[in-house]
């Protein structure tokens, strides 16, 4: 008999909660949460889109205003995976000494680059570094680099300014 009373009270409580919930929803019907968005239709490849974005940026002007000290501070984001000293060891990522102007996958067999990074070819010029640091996974599809990228162009310029100085003979700045 006691067990029936307990079961009935539990069922009645659940029923009351459901009824009250439905009544409250009818009285105070919330408006649907709407997310405003724009659909962007890409005409062409992502690489083409990145080239358009690079044209919009005046990399020369950004580099002229870049701060070595701010770049050194920005490089702290990279220190967990990269070393910056001449002859420094590779970590999860390759050593970045003398990266500006050097060929991509510049350490050859002394670092285990992803196939995508090895096959990319070319040199790490200023435009390439800007595109890569903005969105590594878009610039080199298949890269193992987990970094999401830097959205602020001036912060990228500061970081590239720092990387530019990490060389025995730094490459000339863009004009």
UniProtKB/TrEMBL annotation:
Listed transmembrane segments: 6-28
Subcellular location: Cell membrane
Annotated GO CC locations: plasma membrane
Cytochrome c domain segment(s): 66-167
Membrane-topology annotation of the record: Single-pass type II membrane protein
PROSITE patterns: CYTC
Keyword terms: Cell membrane, Electron transport, Heme, Iron, Membrane, Metal-binding, Signal-anchor, Transmembrane, Transmembrane helix, Transport
Gene3D superfamilies: Cytochrome c-like domain
GO function term, MF aspect, one: heme binding
InterPro entries found in the cross-reference section: Cyt_c-like_dom, Cyt_c-like_dom_sf, Cyt_c_1A/1B
Domain of life the protein comes from: Bacteria
Family that this chain belongs to: Belongs to the cytochrome c family.
Function: May be involved in electron transfer from bc1 complex to aa3.
Official protein name in the record: Cytochrome c homolog
Originating species: Wolbachia endosymbiont of Sergentomyia squamirostris
């Amino acid at each position: 008999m006691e067990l029936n009373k307990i079961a009935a009270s539990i069922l009645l409580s659940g029923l009351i909660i459901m009824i009250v919930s439905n009544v409250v929803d009818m009285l105070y019907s919330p408006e649907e949460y709407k997310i405003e968005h724009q659909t962007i239709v890409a005409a062409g490849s992502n690489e083409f889109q990145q080239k358009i974005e690079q044209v919009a940026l005046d990399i020369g002007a950004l580099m002229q205003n870049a701060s070595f000290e701010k770049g050194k501070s920005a490089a702290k984001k990279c220190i967990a995976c990269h070393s910056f000293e001449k002859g420094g060891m590779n970590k999860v990522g390759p050593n970045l000494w003398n990266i500006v102007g050097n060929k991509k996958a510049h350490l050859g067999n002394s670092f285990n680059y992803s196939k995508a990074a090895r096959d990319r070819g070319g040199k790490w010029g200023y435009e390439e570094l800007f595109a890569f640091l903005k969105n590594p996974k878009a610039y080199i599809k298949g890269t193992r680099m987990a970094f999401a990228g830097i959205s602020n162009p001036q912060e990228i310029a500061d970081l590239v300014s720092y990387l530019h100085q990490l060389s025995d003979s730094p490459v000339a700045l863009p004009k």
